[in-house]
Amino acid sequence: MSIKSNLLNIKSSLPENVTLVAVSKTKPVADLMEAYEAGQRIFGENKIQEMTEKWEQMPKDIKWHMIGHVQTNKVKYMAPFVNLIHGVDSLKLLKEINKQAKKHDRVINCLLQMHIAEEETKFGMDENELQELLNSDIFTTLENIKVIGIMGMATFTDNKEQVKKEFTQLKTIFESLSTRAITDNCELSTISMGMSGDYTLAISCGSTMVRIGSSIFGSR
Ligand SMILES: *Cc1c(COP(=O)(O)O)cnc(C)c1O
Known about the structure:
Layout: H1 3-13, E1 19-23, H2 29-37, E2 42-45, H3 48-57, E3 63-66, H4 75-78, E4 84-88, H5 91-103, E5 108-114, H6 127-135, H7 137-141, E6 145-152, H8 160-177, E7 186-192, H9 199-204, E8 209-212, H10 214-217
Parallel strand pairs: 1-2, 1-8, 2-3, 3-4, 4-5, 5-6, 6-7
The protein binds pyridoxal-5'-phosphate (PLP).
């Protein structure tokens, strides 16, 4: 199967309200261009340097999503162009994104990463930390970021019930936030959950953004 046919098959199976992020990490620009020529405009990368190199080489109407863990000292490299950062898990990081976005006179969209998996190793905040961040005085002063939703990764397991429980938990957190007043820097519309192995389940649990790599580009 070609990248193009993989992409078009997946796209045609997604409900209209679900956004597809084509996860292209480790793949060469030629592979991304094949997806681009088939109409894909949103690409996800997990390393800032790799994403920056691809951004430099590729058409400028692409929306680049950072889906990996972000180190504060590297935000500056993607601040000129990144469209959405999925893995924001602290006020410290959000402040740095705001600072770097301001230098470029931009507003950078962010998702707050929630820890929903059983594994300790996965990144993300719990519900208390999320509330604390959103209710902090500093948060309201951040004018160069916009929090548009939340993101989560389920436990790496074949146990569908476990994964379903975790996706449902993320959806529940999202709903508990939906009564928040909309502000200039916070308008929650997006739940980023689901990858190649579990995106149909994620969609049935309320996902609005899926991050799919190997089912489009082949295994890494
Ligand atoms: C690599 C990655 C994906 C895509 O994984 P596939 O199983 O290849 O679809 C999705 N989300 C994150 C955060 C990733 O790092």
